[in-house]
Every structure is written in structure tokens, then in C-alpha cells.
Amino acid sequence: MTTAHAPGKIILFGEHAVVYGRPAIAVPLLQLQATGEVTDLSDSPRGNVWLQASAVDLSCWLHECPTHNPLAKVVRLTLAEVRAVDPPALSVRVTSQIPIASGLGSGAAVSVAVIRALSEHLGSPLPLERQSSIAFEVERLHHGTPSGVDNTVITFSQPVYFVRGTPPESFKIGRRFELAIGVSDMPAPTAVAVSTVRQGWLTDPERYDDLFDAIGHISEQARRVIHSGQPEALGPLMDENQDLLEELGVSSSALRELILAARASGALGAKLSGAGLGGNVIALVTPETRERVLRAYESAGAIMTMHTQVRN
Ligand code: MEV
Q: What CATH number matches the domain at 2-162, 3.30.230.10, 1.10.287.3510, 3.30.1330.10, 3.40.50.720?
């Protein structure tokens, strides 16, 4: 059996604006992993692939899976990429600790874990760039115009400063800092959130371009303060980014409640993270405020909470 993993992700700054060419900053969430397991099936005809992902109720032979199923697509693209000649029958099983539709990168992490397990099992492990571009193709199924930030940060498992269409830049974290994450009880429907913003931009391009510029400017400032080891300056930048996400129309009452609860409990700043409408929020905390913020999330309806250190 071949097993491979890929982490979740957190977008610190720049979600949505990144789809329109502005910079975003994202970091891997290493404590939550998706896992792909590939096993030979000796009692089935060569070339057949059995897919199983119980979390999404999927179990099918590859040739019978729905055409647009993301997991089936990931397997088809990986088999084509490694040019497997007469492979044995295989079972591909996926599990994940990353909650689905939480804005924590579950879709891209599952893709990358499967790409890794399958290509290694077939004796052709793929370089990170190829893993990332296959995962990007699959992201297109989730929403038509992915920026590529999710597949990039998850594949490279490093903090990235990301601008669509350019090679990702990793950057130094001058001083580690801590985030408290709260997952709301509403799912984050990426396709809906991305198309809400698209509609707004098509209706009023000038206003939306201004909002994207302002968000991009925050990502630039954030990179500077992270690099120079002044993470406490991120708090106000997170609050500002949240205000702009509100204006883009991708916040929600469930997210606002979590954000207000975090701020009232001593967080230095808080914002939604990922596509929004539901999903998760992040708050900048210290070892002194961390527990209070996590408890405040729970009282405000979070279905999952955790904290993580951001470091190189
Ligand atoms: C989703 O994690 C981030 C978005 O900016 C979409 C994307 O970048 O493709 C909302």
C-alpha cells in the first residue's frame, strides 16, 4: 500500500481579490491532513480503479464514476500524467481530517494527497509543480476561475505570497505568531461566493476594482510586517481586510458573530478566511488570549475550534 498526505490551508489576507490578480498570503495548516491510500487489487482486471471517499459517499469504479466528480478527475489526470502502461487494478481510498466546505482547503488537499499516493504507487512520483497544476485543473470543477492559491500553498506546504499567474514566492516569517481558528456551522460554498463577487464586479467594476486594490495593498503591508517580525501589526490589517470582505458581500451573520466574539475576548484582529459566506474565521491571539478566544468561538456557535502557530 502507498500512503501520502497533504495539509489544509489558511488564507491570511487577499481572498477573492487574488482571483483578480491582487496578491494574497496563505499558510499551510499542518495539523489537519488529507490522506490518499493506494493498494493493488489482485482479484480485479488490470487497469480498473476502485475509488472510495466515504466522507462524500463516493464509491465507484473509475469508468463508472460521474464524469465531473473531482476525485475521479484527479485520478484520471494523474494516470494520464504518469503514462501508466498496463497498471494493475488499484484501490484509491481518501480520508481527511479537514472539514469539508470550511474554507480550510479540503478539496485541494484531497486532490494533492491522491496525486502523491497514486503517482508514487505507480513508481513515478511527480514534482511539486506538476502536483500543483493537476490539483489546479481539479479546482476548476469547484469554481470556474480559481486563482491557484489553494493548490499552491497546499502542495508546497510553506507560507506563500501569491499572485495569480506568477511563480509563488515563499517568504520568511520574522517572528512566529498564533492564530485561533473557528469553523462556523454554515458551509462555505466557494462557487457561490466567487460568483457573488463576479456579479458585483460585472455590475460595478470600478467599485470592485477599488476594493480589490485595497485588499491587495493590505497583503503587501502584511508581508512586510510578517517579514520584519512585527506580527502584532497584523491585527488591524485583519480587521481592515474583514471590512473590505463585508463590502464584497461574502461575510455572513454567523461569521460576524465569531469575529465579534474573538475581538471581544482579546484577539488583536479577526477576519473570515477562504471563500466566506460560511466556513472559518481566524483571529490573531497570544498565549494569554488564546483559550479565551477559543471558548468565545464555542459560545458563538463554532462547530470546531483550533489554534495554530505560523512559522517557517
Ligand atoms: C478560496 O480559498 C480562495 C478564493 O480567493 C478563491 C480562489 O482564490 O480561487 C475565494
A: 3.30.230.10
Annotated active-site residue in 150, 210, 239, 243: 150
Q: 228-237, pLDDT tens digit by residue? A: 999 999 999 9
* CA 2 from centroid of its chain's CA atoms: 24
Q: Is 146 in the pocket of ligand 1 (CB under 6 A)?
A: yes
SS3 state at 21:
coil
150 is catalytic: yes
Q: Is 190 in the pocket of ligand 1 (CB under 6 A)?
A: yes
Q: Whose CA is nearest to atom 10 of ligand 1?
A: 275
Q: Is ligand 1 within 6 A of the CB of residue 215?
A: no
Number of the ligand 1 atom closest to the C-alpha atom of 14? 5
User: How do the domains of the chain map onto residue ranges?
Assistant: 2-162, 172-310
Looking at residue 250, its amino acid is: V
Q: For 137-157, how does the pLDDT look when each residue is reduced to its tens digit (9 = 90+)?
A: 999 987 889 999 999 999 999
What is 172-310's CATH superfamily? Answer: GHMP kinase, C-terminal domain (3.30.70.890)
DSSP letters along 102-139, please? Answer: SSS-HHHHHHHHHHHHHHHHTT-PPPHHHHHHHHHHHH
The pTM (predicted TM-score) of the whole model is 0.96
